[in-house]
């Protein structure tokens, strides 16, 4: 009895999560991304595009986490595409230590580790971004603008990236990987 009630509750929660995710993704695709065409400030347009692609990847990741194994590949591929698109835009147009660049790397690396079960890819993405951001911060410490999120935002997100890398490396050593 208890297991049946637990399964029913889990199914209801998952259905609600799926509904919220799909509705949000519809808004991103049909309203938010198209509205960027009207943004006059090119830098703000790029930042917003990266933020939207990050949250698109995030919501697809949430779906992937509750999608049955037989169907997860399609959802995971869509999430990877969103994260990759945002990452490429951030690399081309933003500084490595911008809030948007670091934010998408943080979430993409978690996706790679947790959903794709690819610790090596997660570590590679995270480490490359961490090193690039560190180098950029050292070189431009005096000239950082608040548009890039300021040094405190960068260091906070970088610490989260480093913490994830440390946990993933330790888990890999324990499992013999």
TrEMBL record:
Q: Which stretches make up the 14-3-3 domain?
A: 1-177
Domain of life (superkingdom): Eukaryota
Q: Tell me which Pfam families the record gives.
A: 14-3-3 (PF00244)
Alphabetized PANTHER family for the sequence: 14-3-3 PROTEIN
Give the family per the record: Belongs to the 14-3-3 family.
Protein name (Swiss-Prot/TrEMBL): 14-3-3 domain-containing protein
Q: Look up and give the organism this protein is from.
A: Palpitomonas bilix
Q: What is the lineage of its organism?
A: Eukaryota, Eukaryota incertae sedis
